[in-house]
Structures are given as structure tokens and as C-alpha cells.
Amino acid sequence: DAEITQSPRHKITETGRQVTLACHQTWNHNNMFWYRQDLGHGLRLIHYSYGVQDTNKGEVSDGYSVSRSNTEDLPLTLESAASSQTSVYFCASSDVAGPTGELFFGEGSRLTVL
Amino acid sequence: AQRVTQPEKLLSVFKGAPVELKCNYSYSGSPELFWYVQYSRQRLQLLLRHISRESIKGFTADLNKGETSFHLKKPFAQEEDSAMYYCAHGSSNTGKLIFGQGTTLQVKP
Question: Is B106 helix (H, G, I), strand (E, B) or coil?
Fold first, then answer.
């Protein structure tokens, strides 16, 4: 079955280290999104992509970067991890152009920055 | 700025009571509004969207453009409705799909 997977599911790292969270989907969806989930803030959009070589900043993009070299993957990189980036990260994809289609979510990656 | 507000962090009701989870959005134009739900140990999933005008698991939501609201309602809550609910707003103008802060619904027996 086609799906969307995230790895690692849990990660502990130290302040200042580079971290990459992987997101892979097998639906051939053009649109992919990264959100972070925090108590009191809900889900906040970090970056999104509407196709290969397309990337866009979301609400809270500082300290994060993404690249889209193929349809299936949208890795999220924290260049220099900070404690404020401790969170649960969700990747999602959709097949409708733009921000108006149903999102299909991964299981989430819990990141702890010490 | 595009914004979604869910004023209640926690809504606790008894089984069989009516439920209303509030959602207000701040961006005008032609909005696309959604409700997503996250049950315990499950993935976030779409519950319903305004354009389909469906009733899913007994839940309905009506888009009120005058009040810029998209409240989620159910006449008789069930224990299995206990979950985190997120309202989301998609705008073709901004190109973004923005979520609210989420409301935890707790249905007590």
C-alpha cells in the first residue's frame, strides 16, 4: 500500500548539531509539507513544496531548510539544532494543487534537543 | 495575516451531551476550511471539509463567512470522539495551509 513514512521516529541530539528528518511518500503526490506540533501552538507550518525543485517558507521556517530533488522525498534539516526546536515533527502530502487538498500525514518524529 | 483560532484548549463533556468546537479564521478571500482529528496513537486524519458539506461520524461544520467561523458540532457526543481536533484554513492567495492551536475533546462516560 502507498503511504508516507518518517524517520527517525525518535531522536535525541545536542545543541548545535545538524539533524535531518526524512519524509518519504509513495503516492506520487506533488505537494509535501512539514509541520511542528507544540502544546499551546498546535501545528505550525515550517516549509512546503508543490513539486520537484519547489520549496517555500511557512510560518516558522527560521533554522530549518528543505530540498525537493524528487517527488517522493522532502527531508527537513535543522542546520544547528536549538532547544527551542524540541518538538514533534509531522510530514504530510497531498495530490491536489495548492493548499486546498486533503493532507495525508506521517506518524511523526519526536526530536529532543539537549 | 492568515490565522486560525481555536479558543478552547480543552473541552470536556459527558457522553450524550452536545459538542461544539469553535474555529475562527482571519483571512478573507475564498477560504478552504477543514477539520482534522488525531485519535490516541493514530495519525492525524481529515475529518471533514466545508466544500463537501458531509456529516462524518455525526459531526457537521458550517462555514459562516460573515463571522469567519467554521465551528464543528455533534448533537450527542460518544466516548470514542475523545481526541485532539484541529481546524485548518487553506488559501490559494497565500499558498499556505494553516492550522489552529487544537482543541482536546474529552468525552466522559
Answer: strand
